[in-house]
Automatic annotation (TrEMBL):
GO molecular function: orotidine-5'-phosphate decarboxylase activity
Pathway participation: Pyrimidine metabolism; UMP biosynthesis via de novo pathway; UMP from orotate: step 2/2
Reaction catalysis annotation: orotidine 5'-phosphate + H(+) = UMP + CO2
Classification via Gene3D superfamilies: Aldolase class I
Keywords noted in UniProt: Decarboxylase, Lyase, Pyrimidine biosynthesis
EC main group: lyase
EC number: 4.1.1.23
Family: Belongs to the OMP decarboxylase family. Type 2 subfamily.
SUPFAM superfamilies: Ribulose-phoshate binding barrel
Family matches, as InterPro entries: Aldolase_TIM (IPR013785), OMPdecase_type-2 (IPR011995), OMPdeCOase_dom (IPR001754), RibuloseP-bd_barrel (IPR011060)
Designated name of the protein: Orotidine 5'-phosphate decarboxylase
Residue positions of the active site: 106
Domain annotation Orotidine 5'-phosphate decarboxylase: ranges: 19-278
């Protein structure tokens, strides 16, 4: 096992020729009828069973083209304990297919509470993944327990920095007294820790979330965070285009993993107005093709092979 999780991310990306991450954001409104057959829509337990069934289909379809899956926890927590059980089973299934699991939890608190969150998501429990997204805006006593747990358990984390949502500027772009932007200051604080925890590929297990919708900002952030791998959401439906991704990678095509959720897992919805009636083979074919296409689009940019 690599002691620095950044090394595992990079080496998996090389082995699979992919840095694509697929989000697992289950919304039963977008499930084909065959998955919902016999499901009681008033029962959290029944819905959770459908979510797990859908996730296994998606994981099977994308496994050859992605390095990780990223469950968004809100979609599971909304169904209470049954949703969490679906998440735990999904994590086990993804690992059985050799995939890295990034829990998109965006957790953050202080002191013992933050340490408990860190144990939950970066420990050895059923809900623990390999990496987790963390909200750092409570300060260092909020994110240090995650860093300590990740280092102890040979896992990783991504600290929210410049997120892909349109209103991120309202807080993240606030100008400080010295003229710096808030997220620049946070990047400097992250780099102090990342530079001390690099692996053999010169990257740290302490990563950052930087949205695909902000390529110009990413170029500036990279100068401040040369040792952090970026988790890049916003590619695809949220507006991030392949050509926007150039600034996220180093000269070796390392330094970022690119996340796509709805554009892959619900790709069949763009094929036909009768998508509710598609069959299992048709669903698998659509998702596999979408993942393969996204991987190839990213690779063209990260290796600068040909113009987009």
């Amino acid at each position: 096992m690599n002691s620095n999780f950044a090394d595992r991310l990079i080496e998996e990306g090389t082995r699979k020729n992919s840095v694509l991450v697929v989000g697992l954001d289950p919304d039963i409104r977008y499930f084909p009828d065959f998955i919902l057959e016999g499901i009681d829509s008033s029962s959290d337990e029944s819905i959770a069973e459908a979510i797990y069934a859908c996730n296994t289909i998606i994981i099977d379809a994308v496994a050859d083209h992605v390095i990780a899956v990223k469950p968004q926890l809100a979609y599971y927590e909304v169904y209470g304990s049954y949703g969490i059980q679906a998440l735990e089973k999904t994590i086990r299934y993804a690992r059985s297919k050799g995939l890295i699991v990034i829990n998109d939890a965006k957790r953050g608190d202080i002191g013992s509470t933050s340490a408990a969150y860190a144990r939950a998501f970066l420990g050895n429990g059923a809900m623990s993944g390999d990496m987790v997204t963390v909200n750092p805006f409570l300060g260092s006593d909020g994110y240090m327990p995650f860093i300590e747990a990740a280092q102890e358990n040979h896992k990783g984390l991504f600290l929210l920095l410049k997120t892909s949502n349109p209103s991120s500027y309202e807080i993240q772009d606030l100008k400080l007294e010295n003229g710096d932007l808030l997220y620049y200051k946070l990047a400097e604080e992250i780099e102090k820790l990342a530079s001390q925890t690099v692996g053999v590929h010169d990257y740290s297990f302490i990563g950052a979330v930087v949205g695909a919708t902000y390529p110009a900002e990413a170029k500036q952030i990279r100068t401040k965070l040369p040792h952090s791998i970026f988790l890049v959401p916003g590619f695809g439906i949220q507006g991030g285009q392949p050509e926007d991704l150039r600034e996220f990678f180093d000269d070796n095509g390392h330094g970022a993993v690119i996340s796509s959720s709805r554009g892959v897992i619900y790709s069949y919805m763009n094929r036909t107005t009768e998508w509710k009636k598609i069959t299992l083979p048709e669903m698998i074919s659509c998702i596999t093709e979408a993942a393969s296409t996204a991987k190839d689009q990213i690779n063209v940019v990260r290796f600068n092979n040909v113009p987009i």
